[in-house]
From TrEMBL:
Superkingdom of this protein's organism: Eukaryota
PANTHER family: GAMMA GLUTAMYL TRANSPEPTIDASE (PTHR11686), RE13973P (PTHR11686:SF9)
An example molecular function term from Gene Ontology annotations: glutathione hydrolase activity
UniProt-recorded name of the protein: Gamma-glutamyltranspeptidase
Region forming the signal peptide: none
Amino acid sequence: MLCPALADFLQELADAENPVDYFYRGQGSTKFLKSMHEKDSFITLEDMEDCESEVQPAVKMFLAGHTLCGPPPPSIYSVVQLAVAAMIDPVFDETISKDARELTGKDAVQHTLQRFRSRYGPEIEYESTEQGSFSVLVEDEMGDAVAMTSSLGDKFGNRELTEFGFFMNNAMGSFAYGTQRGSPQSRNAPLPAKCPVTQMSPVIGIKDDQVAFLTGGTDYLGVTASVFQALTSRHSSNSEGTPLLSRRTNGLTLLNRDKSLLVGY
């Protein structure tokens, strides 16, 4: 999918004296909103000018000589940490197989769900992945890294595409997770500036003050497997699953295959 208008726009943004002002308060916002309004959007210049980023501190965990970093709730990253920390090779600890069976047993699952449910909370169901999602993993020459997962849900909402390459999304499927769409009775009901419940979980692993690996996606079982894979050095470049960008002595290596991954070396 080629988007020449988006390429030109990003080049103008990069060349601007003040890229932030250009995008939110300058000529860039005018161009951006023009393409959005052609698709009947409700974003205004005032919305762009008043926009501020809210940065939340990462959730960190120290495990197997690594520092694992990920986003706070409503991301499911904390569950990924818990799952990885609980695992061990059954050859070296026979009790782990018994613990695993108990953890995934019906009684344990029901007990866990009851702790989180309320009359405002939706019934929790397992979904293997969120539709319309993609991941971006980037590490530059200076060792700075970004792991990002994005999703429009419901296979790109209404499937309207602007000339700048942005998909319009009127569905907001994550706000309807496990409940009637848009129900105000849900704890996950949409509100201005509110983040929906999500299975997204980008992860950055750090070892010896350097980025060791990056992974991320909406399949939290796959993310858990990839993190475990990175920590135990059980790597396979041919396996399918959540992509894993790993640093080695000879450079960066992409492990696990996934067509929906964008990687920067």
